[in-house]
Amino acid sequence: VGRLTQAVLRCRWRGGMFGLLTMLVMGVTTSGAQTLGPREYQIKAAFLYNFAKFIEWPPEAFPSTNTAINLCILGEDPFGDDLEQTVQDKVINGRAMVVQRLKGVQGLKGCHVLFVSASEQKRVSQILESLKGQSVLTVSEMERFAAIGGMINFTLQENKVRFEINVDVTERAGLKVSSKLLKLATIIRDGDRN
Amino acid sequence: MRLRTFRDVSIKHKLTLIIMLTSSVALLLAGAAFGTYELIMFRRAMTSHLLTLAEIIGANSTAALAFNDQSAARETLTALSAEPHIVSTTIYARDGRAFAKYFRADMSQDLSPPTPQEDGYHFGQDHLVLFRRIMLDGEQVGTVYIQSDLQELRARLQLYVGIVVAVMLASSCVAFVLSSKLQGVISQPIMHLAQTARVVSVEKNYAVRAVKQSQDELGLLIDGFNDMLHQIQERDAALQQAHDELEKRVQERTQELQQEIAERQRAEKALRESEMRFRSVAQSANDAIIAADSNGNIVFWNKGAQTIFGYAEAEVLDKPLTLLMPPRYRDTHRRGLERMRTTGEAHIIGQTVALQGLRKDGSEFPFELSLATWQTEEGTFYSGILRDITERKRAEDEIRTLNTELEQRVVERTAQLTAANQELEAFSYSVSHDLRTPLRSIDGFSRILLKSYLDKLDTPGQDYLQRVRAASQRMGQLIDDLLELSRVTRVELRREAVDLSALARAIAAELQQTQPGRQVTFVIAEGLVARGDVRLLRVVLENLLNNAWKFTGKLTHAEIAFGSTQQDGRPVYCVHDNGAGFDMAYADKLFGAFQRLHPASEFEGTGIGLATVQRIIHRHGGRVWAEGAVGQGARFYFTL
User: Fold this and answer.
1) Closest partner residue to A184 among B72, B137, B138, by Cβ?
2) How far is CA B488 from the centre of its chain?
3) What is the pLDDT of residues B538-572, one digit of tens each?
4) Would you say B148 and B46 are in contact if contact means Cβ atoms under 8 Å apart?
5) What residues in B contact A16, CB-CB < 8 Å?
6) ipTM computed for the complex
């Protein structure tokens, strides 16, 4: 079903892709199920893209002013084509967004946004450890991701996709998170060990 | 308010009204301008404020929209409760649905439009609504809609109008008070001027003057007015004077005209009298007096004409002059008249000519005509005076005949006289010549008696014989002189250049030799040359100089002069002396033969000399005369 819907929708996205996406998200949120189904990852893909708009990387994170923002996916890819479709032809602050799928931890340091797939739950501490001192926005959908040193963690509240942000981690990584984003997020600090 | 137009209101009130009206209008306009400006600026500020609000809301809503968080958006909107004029606000999502809404507490219903519109704002009856897109990183993520009421604007306008009205009222009061006080500066002099002008026009009193109170245009106006009055006053006086003078002149002129008329009447009277005189003279003249116009028609005809031509006046008036001429003269007359009319040439005007006339009875007669012309406005007129000269012609003819006869007789008589004269001359010559022979015998024999028979005669006898001899000698001299006189008459005249000076000098020398003891001074002018017969002129000079010599004989210092003067361009020769002279009463007798003014005992002479001189001078065609006084010398003049 998910594939078919995507195929049907794809041709309509040319006119107003983001609006349509939002409409789909609304449709999903009103469905009322705890699992949002295949639309969940469409929403999350959009969120991944939108995060980049509200995060400010330190200048050294980009070799030049037009270096693309690398959106890396480590582990099993739950998005399918959604990420590519979301970031296609988009420009954030003068930079394009490029999606890279990583099989191992090599090349992590070249990422700007790293989505750690649920498949990597066991190695997450190691991954986060390797990224210490790097200005890489780490995003995941694992329980307590933000608490264990991740930066943003997707949650579901009242059938809506929400997220937690560990402001201590982002601060250490030299990333500035917009207050607007913070206003929408559940703030996590290093001390919180729930 | 009375029914008076503004035009008729006193200038005092006009000024006040104008000032108040002006200040009110100015204030009103300024108020309106400031009000408009205030309105525009306030609206702009309102819009700007609303826009800022929309921007803030938009900016604060970007994350909520991006992450689809409606509650966050709503929370953002609740902050608007601090803005009492915001009625409602709506955030629309990118797809146009209302994403979050806000109403003011007193609003019960949703006034926001169901779908968003383009960016912009719009003022409604009592609302200002504004749409603003919400942008995130160059992408539209939604639209914000804000509606504000206009209470603030309204309150502000009310306050503004209230202030303007108050200011206008206050300023009107101030303007009224000020203008009432200040209008006098302008109106007072004008009213004073008007009052003065009224006095001038009503009383005709040009002596009044307006009082000048300032140096501005009003002062100039008053100066000008006064100046004008002054000029009018002067002109008035001048006019009066001119009027008086004119009247005087009219009187004078009238008097002159009356005199002129009287004179003209006198002149006309004189003219009439003259005309009458002329007419009576013309009518009563024996000569015919005829006048004609330029066409040759008779316009005047007197009694003399009637007598001469036989026509009555009525018969000839307006008839052509040719009536009075024999037919053969008529063409010539017409041509002459025509020529005179065209060229003005007149051969006979002013002259007396003899012509032939034709009487009524057809007979011709000669007459004498003197013609005159005169010009009048009606043209040229001719007048002629004609005299019948039939009688005179006849008398003239007679005289001519008589003259011819007389001349014939003179010629005959002259021939007779010439013959007689020649005979007489011959006789006289022969007598003189024949008388000499016995005289020579008497003289000769008496000389012989005195020579040869002196001792036989006693003293008386000798004396008698001496007397006989002297008498015979004198007779001889007498005969010589007579012969000379007759020779002078007979001899033929041979004219040549004669040096009178040399002749006189020679004669003087001869005279000196006859009586060497006498002291006589001769003064003879040099170079006197005349044309004449040298022998006869010598006789003339001999006689004259001899006379002078003779009549100065009793003087110790005699002076004799011969010279010439000019008279009428011809030389007059003169011999004069300082001798005995003569009485001018006898001057005409001097040149007669045998005429002597002095006794022979005193000055010897025959009395023929000056007669001979006169004859010779006359033969030369000259003249001789003498001047002198007793004891003061004599002057003999002659011309040749």
Assistant:
1) B72
2) 73
3) 989 999 998 899 888 888 888 999 999 988 888 99
4) yes
5) 94-95
6) 0.74
